[in-house]
Specification:
globular, 10 helices, 37% helix, disordered N terminus, alpha/beta, two-stranded antiparallel ribbon
């Protein structure tokens, strides 16, 4: 589920089912292997260059192993190709963190930390996306978050809890708006993220009262907001050994030793 920085009220801010995604589906390239819909600025010359939108949505459903409950709710399957890809990323992250966290035992060294986005990095928005037909609005997001807990991204709650037990401070950094804090914290807690979830550990975007450590204030791009917040976390005495996100804009801008890109073909956020 997006956040003001990640979800956009206009198509230019959040490109749903991006043109690069649909083009890749037509040509057979492994867009889901990459796991990210990328921006495409070229203008199709004929309708034949544009695949059928319904077929693209069907591909996405198949990738997530779409499972429908008796009451019509849609969920991703733990046996899906999406879940398989996520587990592969988590396995690599676990191996890396085992070594990285072990190297922070020396006195005087900055405390290790990991930073994670929320939507489609720690919480899975798939059910919401199907409910709204991949058409985000702030109103529908508020309504959903107020009353519904998203499932954790397969295995991420276990990875995060393990990293915390091994000595990593855990920070959540999302573009969700500040008004969604209580709902977001409730959801993370209810699906098993057993780490501190106070204001010092969960950063949401506050356009009305932006923090002084962000020179761009309320006009920050996603990259400026997220990298600026990571730099702030580092200024508090932490060494960000790993940064997790489903969008490349979650990961760019520095302030972090290694990045882990989570798959998400449902939308693109610059």
């Amino acid at each position: 589920m997006p956040r003001p920085a990640r979800f956009r009220p206009a198509l230019s801010r959040r490109a749903r089912l991006g043109a690069a995604t649909v083009a890749a589906l037509v040509t057979g390239t492994a867009v889901f292997g990459v796991g990210q819909a990328t921006a495409e600025h070229s203008i199709p010359r004929t309708d034949k260059e544009i695949p059928n939108l319904t077929q693209v949505q069907d591909k996405i459903k198949a990738y997530y192993g779409d499972t429908v409950t008796a009451d019509g709710e849609h969920y991703a399957s733990p046996r899906s190709n999406y879940a398989h890809q996520v587990r592969g990323i988590e396995t690599k992250a676990h191996g890396y963190l085992s070594k990285a966290l072990a190297g922070h035992g020396r006195a005087g060294k900055a405390k290790p930390a990991i930073v994670l986005d929320i939507d489609d990095t720690t919480l899975l928005t798939y059910n919401y996306e199907l409910q709204v037909g991949f058409h985000f609005t702030e109103e529908s997001q508020d309504k959903y978050l107020a009353h519904t807990d998203m499932d954790p991204v397969f295995g991420m709650n276990r990875l995060v809890n393990w990293a915390h037990d091994k000595g990593a401070e855990v920070f959540f950094l999302t573009g969700r708006k500040e008004a969604q804090r209580d709902w977001s914290v409730r959801n993370l807690k209810n699906v098993g993220y057993g780490v501190p979830l106070d204001r010092r550990h969960v950063y949401l975007k506050d356009k009305e009262h932006p923090p002084p450590y962000l020179p761009c204030g309320s006009t920050c791009s996603t990259i400026e907001y997220k990298s600026g917040t990571r730099k702030h976390i580092e200024s508090l005495g932490y060494d960000i050994v790993a940064n997790f996100g489903d969008q490349y804009s979650d990961l760019r801008g520095g302030a972090g030793n290694r990045t882990f890109k989570m798959p998400n073909p449902m939308y693109y956020l610059p």
